[in-house]
Amino acid sequence: DTGVSQNPRHKITKRGQNVTFRCDPISEHNRLYWYRQTLGQGPEFLTYFQNEAQLEKSRLLSDRFSAERPKGSFSTLEIQRTEQGDSAMYLCASSFPGLVYEQYFGPGTRLTVT
Amino acid sequence: KNEVEQSPQNLTAQEGEFITINCSYSVGISALHWLQQHPGGGIVSLFMLSSGKKKHGRLIATINIQEKHSSLHITASHPRDSAVYICAVITPGNQFYFGTGTSLTVIP
Questions:
Q1: Per-residue pLDDT reduced to its tens digit, A59-105
Q2: Which residue is closest to B47 within chain A, CA to CA?
Q3: By the CB < 8 Å criterion, does A25 face chain B?
Q4: Which of A41, A37, A13, A38 is nearest to A105 (CA)?
Q5: What is the least distance, in Å, from the CA of A99 to any CA of chain B?
Q6: Can you give the pLDDT at residue B42?
Q7: pLDDT below 70 — which residues of chain B?
Q8: Chain B touched by A85 (CB under 8 Å)
Q9: pLDDT of residue B11
């Protein structure tokens, strides 16, 4: 399978715990995006990378959120001290460089904070 | 006010009907995407537009940059088209905005 993959697919955690998600993009894609989607809403942009450089961060990305793409391949999104409001689907997408290229989405990681 | 507004929010159609979903936006854009999301969450990019019109199978997407409006049309709709259709725009300043989606149900 050469699509975008995300792990884990589901994560249940207790409030206050830290969680980390991983995204493996399509190998030829330089751009990698993270989005968050809550039930009944469209996705919200969180951040994106070109290679290992984090080029844009949404104001939604509080200090508790950090994303990395250390070697320009896979990326991780970490949420520290999770809150119930963090419960959402976290989506990753990748594309060729340039905003005019279509993005390919992964299946998402569903986070439930209890 | 959302930067991207879609209409209708919900749409039910009989199989075979011609369907139109509208997207209006209030910001300057470099590109507009139409996305399809099936139950279970998987998102597929249908079109990326910066001008004019694109067609893929039974799907047609148009955009009018001056009017800040795009439409997604589905011809000869089929139950497998049932999904949420999301409009998303990217500004020249790399800001991403998404609509809340249009939930389409096509009845056999």
A1: 777 899 999 999 889 999 999 999 999 999 999 999 887 656 788 99
A2: A102
A3: no
A4: A37
A5: 7
A6: 83
A7: 1
A8: no
A9: 97
**The residue to which tokens 């854009």 are assigned:** B29
What is the token pair recorded at A25?
């993009």
Please tell me what DSSP assigns to residue A29: -
The span from the CA of A108 to the CA of B14, in Å, is 31
Q: Distance (Å, rounded) from C-alpha B47 to C-alpha A57?
A: 24
Q: How confident is the model at residue A57 (pLDDT cuts 50, 70, 90)?
A: confident
Element (H, E) at B71: strand B69-74
CA dist., res. B48 & res. A94, Å (int): 14
Residue A98 DSSP one-character state: S
Is B31 close to A100, i.e. CB distance below 8 A? Answer: yes
Chain A CB contacts of B34 under 8 Å are: none
Amino acid at B73: H
| Distance from C-alpha of A54 to C-alpha of A49, rounded to nearest angstrom | 4
Give the mutation candidate from A44, A87, A99 for the B interface (greatest B CB count, under 10 A).
A99
- Taking the Cβ of residue B95 and every Cβ of chain A, the question of whether any pair is shorter than 8 Å is answered with yes
DSSP conformational letter for A48: E
The confidence score (pLDDT) of residue B39 equals: 80
pLDDT at position A58 = 84
A44 to chain B: which residues are within 8 Å by CB? 98
Put simply, the answer to whether A107 touches B88 (Cβ < 8 Å) is no
**The predicted structure's pLDDT at residue A88:** 95
Select from A54, A27, A50, A45 the least CA-distant residue to A97. Answer: A50
